[in-house]
Amino acid sequence: MTQPAFPLFEALRQKFGAQIQSLTADREDETYLTLNDPDIRPITNYLRGEFGARLVMVFAEDRRASEGVFFNYYVFDQKGSSRYLLVRTPIRPDDPSFPSLSAELPAVNWQEREIQDWFGLKAVEHPNPRRVALHDNWPDVHPLRKDFPLETVLPPFEGERHIYRPALGEGVFQVPVGPVHAGIIEPGHFNFAVAGEPILYLQLRMFYTHKGTEKLFEKLPIPKAVFLAESISGDSSFSHGTAFCQAIERAAQMEIPLRALVMRTILLELERLCNHVADIGAIATDVGFVIANAHASRLKEMLVMLNEQLTGSRLLRGMICVGGVRRGWNAVQRDTLCSTIDSFAREFQDLIGMIDSSESTRDRLEQTGVLKHEKARDLGIVGVAGRASGIDLDTRRDHPYAAYSRYSLRVPVYEAGDVWHRMQVRIEEVRDSISIIRKAVDESLKGEFCAPARAIPSDRCALGAVEGWRGEIIHWIRTGTDNHLERCKIKDPSLNNWPALVEAVQGNIIADFPVINKSFNLSYSGTDR
Amino acid sequence: MFNIIQKTIKTGIVTARYPDEAAKISENFRGRPAFDFEKWKDARPAAEVCPTGAISLRDKSDSRRVTVDYGLCVFCGLCADASSDQAVQITREFELATMDRHKLVLTAEYALNADGTHQQLREVQFQSGHTDTDVETLGRKARENIHKLLRRSLAIREVDAGSCNGCELEIVALNNPIHDIERFGIQFVASPRHADMLLVTGPVSRNMELALLKTYRAMADPKVVVAVGACGISGGIFGANYASLGGVDKVLPVDVYVPGCPPRPQALLHGILLAVGCLAQRLDSDTAVNQKA
Ligand code: SF4
Fold first, then answer.
1. Which of A318, A244, A236 is nearest to A279 (CA)?
2. At the topology level of CATH, where does A7-124 sit?
3. What three-state secondary structure class fits A187?
4. Where does residue A89 rank: exposed (0-12), middle (13-18), buried (19+ CB within 10 A)?
């Protein structure tokens, strides 16, 4: 373990010396700062104010058995630096509470409440401390505490699931939708307050698909847990699988062969292509441009067939593994990759030409569902939705992984924050993905595709970050004994971005809700886990 | 406008003709793992790596019972990689849907050597054939049934009861121009009241249990229920836990099970066509009862 020398840490040591218990880094780009007490506020203010740091995520861990306390973790990153700083604050079981940051930092609103629900630690002075991860009709349980068994059979639920704020005012009424929606999509409950056509505000009730995923990670041997990671959010199977494997590999300090890194890069970009082109089509459908969607979904099918040719699975499943990828591919597969990408690129141009030639489509999408830059910043919005609102973040560039540092990357950023620009971000990213794949392809044939298996040391912490097609995916793990995990924290970008949807629909007519929702296309399962 | 018409003409007809013709699938597709029980010298490595417990062992002092449950399988191929004797092979078979949950389960009994390897195969049990009709006939019959009994249209309500959304992606793909399920007169509808068939994905989270039941109850009789994917059949990798019930049949009577993780569109179509058969039978017997009365 080295003592990291870095101006930021020097400054922290000088300013908060008395509050700091230790500062350690197993890896150059991941530093742990442990405090003596739960009060994170002064350091947060300092990091945000002086260094422009961003609070990436907040989560907890039950360490009562080994260290006698719970810990909260606050993950920060700083523009222009590839380091993550994780601040660890101890929370004593006899005073299970921590000061809430949500009033000033709405970005962590849900995350702090998750800690309340899952660990039974109270977020003191949280502006809206109601349950979020567990529905109101659940008994008083805290599933991520170590003394709560995964297989616990809870009694039948009774009572209200969630009390919605009433909509008041003359001519104001509420429109409840869900959890089962009209289309073939995931479940969640939306409660609109509308005055005539315009939406006054939207309340969300998520976590309908909560299925104990983080807890289950603590029960599976690591190689099996890879499959669980692939099942966090179906459309991001490969990205979540990669984030998970990266975390394990970092914990075990494994060297990953170049070929594996390149193949991962290609597959990550294929996942982006599949989802972006499908979303472009779906946005077009929601404003009545059905033909564009027919072409887009045909293009997507072309890509998922390529996925299958390359990995055996249309969703790229069963390909990622700790140490690299499970199989190499041969010249035939490489040729299919190249020729499919070529025809895709051509047809994608046609598709975009078609959309661009439709004035009415542009009309419907511009200034619809606007997410202002300041709001996006305060809410901690990431990924496509962030970039369309001027949030210049991309994990591929900011914390390079796989083989991304080998290829130049264009990160499209717009200010307008409307549906049209969320679509434009996707369009530009599709073009960029195509060029990354073309550059990477030659390096994907030769060499080892997986590092030799090795024992995973116990009690190591590590973070794995991937820019999924939706945005920043983070897995944080602590290894346990016997190839198991003590803890696996998952952050899907959807968790950050739901509040963006709430913001963006305000003042829009309810008929535009589907297209606004589609332009974010958030994962319920990734949120609910 | 002109360029749209031009593009449409240039693209031509892209719809696949499955099940009248074989499905076009990649040679690398991972379908059903096939087990050569005679040849299998040791089931332990495969059972050890299987992520969902689809392969499970029960050892007594000198014998072993191996159970393979395709209802739990996520088609990862690890069992084939782990079995050095080539007794486990990944095939490209995907038409695994069945009306009988037991048909997804195989068992084999072995006498064991002292080192735990298989000495001799004593017995294999399985209920032969996943479906009783070949898929072409199934397609033809389903078309006839939809045409005659259902007046040309079958309505499906889909409910995600806690899936990862993988199954939904493939169900949505059934509506793309390649798979185009509407060519059978099958459509997905918003209201359960209009639906003949309930297609359910996910392990049934505790939080979706009630919504699933309500949707089912809102459907008029006769109706059929299809459990989709490893999660829908058995809970899959999630199994049963404090937040997950472990499969659709824990809550509803299931008529057809469609294995896969997720099932590819053709596998879904195969399961749906099978379920059309169930529905037709139910309609037939209802009509018979009505005529008697
Ligand atoms: S292919 Fe199926 S049976 Fe074989 S290891 Fe994977 S999940 Fe288990």
1. A236
2. Beta Polymerase; domain 2 (3.30.460)
3. coil
4. buried
The CA distance from A199 to A503, in Å, is 11
What one-letter code names the amino acid at A114?
A: E
Q: Whose CA is nearest to atom 6 of ligand 1?
A: B76
**Residue A19 in contact with residue A36, Cβ under 8 Å?**
yes
Cβ atoms within 10 Å, residue A219: 17
pTM of the model: 0.94
Taking CB atoms and an 8 Å limit, are B76 and A350 in contact across chains? no
Whether residue A7 is predicted with pLDDT greater than 70 in this model: the reply is yes
Task: Report the run of H or E that residue A528 belongs to, with start and end.
Answer: helix A524-528
Residues of B in contact with A145 (CB under 8 A): none
Q: How far apart are CA A44 and CA A107, in angstroms?
A: 13
Predicted confidence at residue A158, as pLDDT, reads 82
- Ranges of H-type helices in A456-507: 493-505
Q: What is the CA radius of gyration of chain A?
A: 23
- Which domains are seen in chain B, by residue range? 33-125 (no CATH), 135-292 (3.40.50.12280)
Question: Which amino acid appears at position A526 of this protein?
Answer: G
Indicate if ligand 1 lies below 6 Å from the C-beta of B76: yes
**Minimum distance, in Å, between the CA of residue B172 and any CA atom of chain A:** 7
Rounded alpha-carbon distances, angstroms, from residue A276 to A295, A299, A341, A358, B267: 13, 11, 14, 19, 25
**Residue tagged 């099978």 (tokens):** B274
* Apex A295 CA angle, A291 and A299, nearest 5: 165
Q: Identify all chain A residues contacting B74, using CB atoms and an 8 Å cutoff.
A: 227, 317-318
DSSP B44: H
Query: Do A6 and A53 meet the contact criterion of CB atoms below 8 Å apart?
Result: no
Assign domain A213-528 one CATH number from 3.90.1030.10, 3.30.420.110, 1.10.645.10, 3.30.70.360. 1.10.645.10
pLDDT tens sequence across A447-457 = 999 999 888 99
Q: Which residue has the tokens 């960029």?
A: A432
Q: How far apart are the first and last CA of chain A?
A: 34
Q: What is the pLDDT of residues A424-433, one digit of tens each?
A: 999 999 999 9
Assess A312–B contact: CB distance below 8 Å, yes or no.
yes
Q: Give ∠ CA A32-A228-B45 in degrees, rounded to 5.
A: 110
Token couple for B226: 């299809």
Q: Other C-beta atoms within 10 Å of A150: how many?
A: 16
CB contacts < 8 A, A to B, total: 193
Calpha distance A98→A106 (Å, rounded): 16
Is A209–B202 a contact, with Cβ atoms under 8 angstroms apart?
A: yes
Closest chain B residue by Cα to residue A219:
B238
A211 touches chain B (CB under 8 A): yes
Q: Please give the C-alpha separations between residue B63 and each of A517, B35, B56, B87, in angstroms, as whole numbers.
A: 57, 18, 14, 19
Q: Alpha-carbon distance B98 to B132, whole Å? A: 9
Predicted pLDDT at A4: 46
* Model pLDDT, residue B131: 55
List, as ranges, residues 173-192 from B with C-beta within 8 Å of A. 173, 175-179, 188, 190
Distance B265 CA to ligand 1 centre (A): 20
Backbone φ and ψ of A160, nearest 5°: -70, 145
Are B30 and A310 a contacting pair, CB within 8 Å?
no
Non-local (6+) Cβ contacts of A250 within 8 A are A27, A30, A462, A463, A464
Residues from chain B contacting residue A298 (CB–CB below 8 Å): 11, 14, 176-178
Delimit the domains of chain A by residue range.
7-124, 172-205, 213-528
